[in-house]
Amino acid sequence: MLLNIAQKCLQLIGPEKAHDFTLSGLKITANTPLEWFYRQSLPNKPVSVMGIEFPNSVGLAAGLDKNGEAIDAFHSMGFGHIEVGTVTPRPQLGNQKPRLFRIRKKNAIINRMGFNNLGINNLITNLQAKESPAIVGVNIGKNRDTTLEHGLSDYIHCMKKVYEYANYIAVNVSSPNTPGLRSLQYGTLLDELLENLKQVQNDLTNQTNKYVPLALKIAPDLDRNEITSIAKAITRNDFDGVIATNTTLTRNDVEGLHHSDETGGLSGEPLFKRANQALDCLRQCLDPSIPIIAVGGIMSAKDAQKKLAIGADLVQIYTGFVYKGPKLIKDIVLKI
Ligand SMILES: Cc1cc2nc3c(=O)[nH]c(=O)nc-3n(C[C@H](O)[C@H](O)[C@H](O)COP(=O)(O)O)c2cc1C
User: Is 140 helix (H, G, I), strand (E, B) or coil?
Assistant: First the structure.
């Protein structure tokens, strides 16, 4: 009830202000009695994926808590894992505001945030301060002003820094808001990236005695051949998982609506079908031993069930969580 009222009030201010306000509130109240407002005790429904024991199959998708500021609060809401980031080596402001738009009629969001984040060192400080046993994936990317040729060194830099603190590392090559980033999903650029990161993972495993799985996050805007090539590269380079998908550049189902012509990635309900097609295609051409974390357009427990039925091992939510709040986590966990 109180959460519903708070949610209605937040919808009256701009979307990015509402986001920042909520995150600050969660950061301040985490690990205090005020956590009561959003704490949910959910049944344990453990699942083992990429060698990690998750308490349930529902995670928070990347981009909502880019700097890892409210991990403990999201854990107390019942998320089985929290993916923080995308984080880049150096802090960056991201694109000019406004850059976040809600299309309420369709339970959708368009964003062109552009990896606004406080940089890897700040994220590590926040990971060190975490008090809960939350499972944390760290989603890494490259700075906007790092050329594609030098992109690899940004990923390696972030990977080395977070290795000690992350349960898994997500390699983001699919944001539409960093120019050129999506070209890392193809051909030799992808192979080179995966091969080098795998080598770094081997070295770090030997040094630390800890194996941190690597997952590649892909776009929904790929055809069957492109997804097949990615699946082959994943297998060839012994990557541990795939996250499917990021936001879409298409505008199906929102054409003509206010904000639909804003530049950026579309998420939420209109993404569901397209993300599922990518998931289905990926599941068919990827070795069954390689897990998939499915994300894109989940607005209900039924949507999550659909992704699991297609062959996902875990699911994540972002836009559905923005519109429906923590209740969506509970609905899904109770029904799967
Ligand atoms: C405002 C916003 C910011 C996002 N930022 C990131 C990001 O930094 N890194 C990333 O990998 N995905 C990012 N995403 C994509 C989400 O993680 C997710 O893949 C996508 O929104 C589809 O899921 P959904 O339909 O449940 O929102 C962002 C999405 C939104 C709406």
Answer: strand
What whole-number percentage of the chain has pLDDT above 90? 90
Q: Check pocket membership of 178 for ligand 1, CB cut-off 6 A.
A: no
**Can you give the pTM of this predicted structure?**
0.97
Separation of CA 64 and ligand 1 centre (Å)? 7
217 lines ligand 1 (CB under 6 A): yes
Q: Which of 175, 183, 260, 300 is catalytic?
A: 175
**Structural tokens at position 214:** 């690597």
Q: Say whether 326 sits in a helix, a strand or coil.
A: coil
For the cut 90, the answer to whether the pLDDT of residue 14 exceeds it is no
Tokens coding 266: 């579309």
Helices (H) and strands (E) in the chain, counts: 11, 13
How many whole angstroms from 203 Cα to the centroid of ligand 1? 30
Mean pLDDT of the region 217-221: 96
Domains of the chain: 2-335 (3.20.20.70)
Judged by DSSP in three states, 105 sits in: helix
- Which residues does 20 contact at the CB level (< 8 Å), separation at least 6? none
- Residue of 19, 246, 259, 329 to test ligand 1 pocket, by largest number of atoms within 8 Å of CB: 246
> What residues contact residue 119 under an 8 Å CB cut-off, 6+ apart?
87, 88, 89, 90, 91, 92
Element (H, E) at 320: helix 319-324
Residue 5 has pLDDT above 80, yes or no: no
Q: Is the pLDDT of residue 298 over 70?
A: yes
Asked if 320 and 298 touch (Cβ cutoff 8 Å), the reply is: yes
* pLDDT reading at 159 higher than 90: yes
